[in-house]
Amino acid sequence: MKIIFTLIFICFSTVCSAQFLDKLGKKAEKAVERSIERRTEKETQKSTDRVLDSVVAAPKKNKKKATKKTKDKSSEKNIIGTDPDEEDE
Questions:
Q1: For a tag site, which of 1, 38, 50, 66 has the least CB within 10 Å?
Q2: How far is residue 28 from each of residues 22, 42, 80, measured CA to CA in Å?
Q3: How far is the CA of 31 from the CAs of 42, 46, 62, 68, 80, in angstroms?
């Protein structure tokens, strides 16, 4: 009778330990996923911050002067694309 109880106890403890190891493995897997997600989010935030800082710190160009220059040049040209003053010479 003692042998039967011993065998039942060993089988029961083996099943319980296997379930425990499965649960432990799943928890470890979730922990790894969370740490990877946090790391990815942290790196993404760093790169986004760098880009925003570079955009804010970039010198502003004066767009009005650039558009006036292009308008002046285009108004001097005729349909063919040559300068009217050059034709007179």
A1: 1
A2: 10, 21, 74
A3: 16, 23, 52, 60, 70
